[in-house]
Amino acid sequence: MGDTFAPYNFIPFSERKMQKPDKLKAFNRYEDGTYTGNIEYTIENFTELHIGSGKKDINNVDEFFRDGYGNIAIPGSTIRGMLRTNAEILSFSYPEFIDDDTYLYRTFADNCINVKEEYSKEMNATNDNGMRIADGVKAGYIYWKDEKHLEIQPVKEFGDSGTTYFRIHENELRRANCLNNNEYMYLEEVETFEFSKKEEYKNKIELCYGDLEKIEELKKEIAEESLKEYAKDYVPKVLKKWNNEKKKAENLNTEYKPYHHKGIHFNLEGCTPQIDKDGKYIGTLINSSYIDGKTHHFLVSADEDVDKEPIQIPLDLALSFLQDFNNRSKLLGKNKEFYNLPMDGNNYLIGKKHKKLFFYKLTDERLVGFGPTPYFRIFYKNSVMSCLTQKESTPIYDYVKSMFGYVCADNNQDEKAKTEHYKSRINITNCICTRGGDKLKNCEAILLGPHGTSFQLYLNQIGKKVKVSGYNGLTTFNSDDAKLRGYKFYWKRENIGKISDEILSKREKFKNIFTKFEAIQPKAEFTGKIYFENLTKDELGLLICALKLNENEQQTIGKGKPYGYGAIEVKKIKLNYFYKSEEDNSIKEYFLNPEGIEANTLEVTYSKENEMIEDALNEFRNAYKDKLKRDFDIDFDKDEIIQLYQNVHKRESRLSYDRVYMEISKKEFRNRNPLPCANEFFNEAGEFIEPVRIYPNSEHTKQKMRNNNIQNK
Question: Which residues form the CRISPR type III-associated protein domain (predicted)?
Fold first, then answer.
């Protein structure tokens, strides 16, 4: 198995703990040895650029951001995010703004056997109960007690069956005529499963009359064998039949949608429900979206078990569930609310009157997971932040916290620590478009791709392979050695990636994931300012490095980065500041700009304007580098993380390969091929290459092969 392709990669997180020796600066005075002023700069885009406004026009096109005066602009928050991330990398600071989610997963046929077996083990999907339902999964009503408390009230079990729900074949429901027309998945009956050894085991049980222990062993054996036969023979046969699109289309009910149908009466014959309008039990029939091979619905107990205490769902898990739902909402389409918690948009629906029938599982009082169907997505063992190798200890004031500010949001801290915060000493204006604002065009892309749950991409897989000991080997969010790869960045591209004709031909099918947006064409210019207050010389040097470290540097911002949109370059930097001297407590004023304007205290003259600017900026950059060497023994220019950062941001570090990752064959993701490390894209001289094994059809690879052929001749 090879590596996979993605339009992004990662710069590793630093494992250092960088506590600044300087105390935090005050805001009520100019402190000795500090700089206060602003940086003026220009941004030029080299590919189409879109920064969203959160608004759509009458044609459902995402509009470009405009300020309060109607000017096309890049919002200050976008620049701030770029600067903060760059500063974190360049100062080895703690990665503050990583969402500490606990991801969810569900899998039955994953090429990474680790995660497949972990899911099966957690859900105990062994058929030991003989009902082909997950052991220990129960049903209940989920509701918001208030905005911070989500609860599940269990429902009663059916008699002595030990379960709160059953599977029931659609054929049985059709014969009972108990559903509405749009609640059947098919237009006519479908083939049912019959265990081929049913009579054989029936005879074995009769021969064991009175031997209860032996009979129980045989029942367990029947359950295991029938499940194997169901999975190995029946399901593939049905899928093969339904893979004939014509036959499938003829029997599929196009009006079907997920449903809850209350008030279903039935009786039990052993553990088999029989629909009967005069039946002893009452339940609710439910079913989720149709998938190939699906033939069963679920009959669920409707009565709350008031003798049982409600199950408290930790708020962080509730929020992780909502985040997971939001990430999948486009794929869920028009039926997405079936899968959601009791919500009205982003608002919680408080109280039992908004309760929904859900399923859950507890193992030794640990909540494995919950969801709208019995085979729900469950929580990984490790949260995202627990996979970060640099652990935060409070209080540590690194460069980024001391410059950009922070708010302590750790609920485990005492009350004083909870309220601790420090205001930013950096303020950033919107970057106003001064050229090219009239050159807008509508673009289209599929902006949906692998999420953090794609552990083969987002977790460190160095030395790991997919096929080791039967597909084992990959690190998942359940692994003890799970480690985040680092800061995600998008590769720049030679050309904007195109949506394939195959996908465009299925536009109606994929309409939920198509996005139209307004983009400004290349060579537009934006101007903005960064205001700073009471920064030390090394801090100002870091800020300048984060804005632009090297001359041949480009970055990516905005929407559509996977396609190559948003490549920008920072230009025409002007530095203006006041400096409060430590020696004589005086304030000195400096203006350094391309026009060569000099303050009265600037004694050095320069023959060229650009040389003056760059020399002045480098003085601050070098002050920061010297500080790292002196206080932390870090050689900035030789550090591996810094070298990778510089290589990634070079103008020439561009993919020539034109694939867009949403259009790679499904097999490539299903195979769980790991993502290569970013440093594999550069040779020892720091020159960009595209690994042949990953990009066999790229221009770089073709040229390399042509050169080899010439040499061989």
Answer: 43-148
